[in-house]
Amino acid sequence: MSQPEHLIVTTTDQLCEIRFNRPHRLNAVVEELYTELLAALAQAEADPEVRVVLLTGEGRAFCVGADLKAHQAGRTPFARRQYLRLEQQVCERIFHLAKPVVAAVNGYALGAGAEMAVASDFIVIAESAQIGFPEVTIGNFLGGGVTWLLPRLVGLAKARELLFFGERIDGREAARIGLAARVFPDATFREAARAFARQLAQRAPFSLQLVKEQLNHAGERTFDACLTAELEGMTFVATTQDWQEGIDAFAEKRAPRFQGK
């Protein structure tokens, strides 16, 4: 894939880093960014060298949501719906991607930006970063599955508070309520976020994929159905070379070297 206009995509050490690249607009979203992001996610999923995807923003913001100036350009109702559907598709793609997605919130993550972060498997956040859902305060509504995902992360009462009031919270508060997995100092944030993702990339790829799928759907399944899915997962991974590598590494008291085979 050629380098997109609104993203910076780099792959090193089994990590695909996708940076939103509209810093002059605080990475506010336009249609082209969404379509480029869908293509980049598909490329990362198909690349056997990629174990983890890291989403972050260029400049001083993660993503401040929709570019409202672009919205004022006289769209038809159909064109507006197509744009909104793109955001739903992006969040759905992040949520269902067969590889873990880490959202590294380096600054403002608002509206659609916060929704993309919530759709990820992990949020890591800088201390001074601010995340929030201001849609209701401007007469808009929410997207990206956040009304389903957010209560699972922070509980229904806290989700109501965040969505009804639309107030921003900083990195420490996001970690305190369970929205973010880690909070890192601003000065070392980018490298700390990459280190977090690289640590995740050392895990067995098939095992990670199965855990992600199971956790994403566990709330919709009965306990017995979860047991059945876990049994199928355990049976499958036992057929892989990585399973044997894990056993050997444990016996030899060394770190495993998983190959995704």
Can you summarize this structure?
This protein has 261 residues and is of the alpha/beta class.
Features:
alpha/beta, four-stranded mixed sheet, 2 domains
Structural summary, described in words:
It is a single chain. This protein has 261 residues and is of the alpha/beta class. The protein folds into two domains: 195 residues, 2-enoyl-CoA Hydratase, Chain A, domain 1 (Alpha-Beta Complex), CATH 3.90.226.10; 48 residues. The chain is 49% helix and 16% strand. It is built from eleven helices and ten strands. Helix 1 runs parallel beside helix 3, helix 3 runs parallel beside helix 4 and helix 9 packs antiparallel against helix 10. The two termini are 25 Å apart. The model has no long low-confidence stretch (mean pLDDT 94).
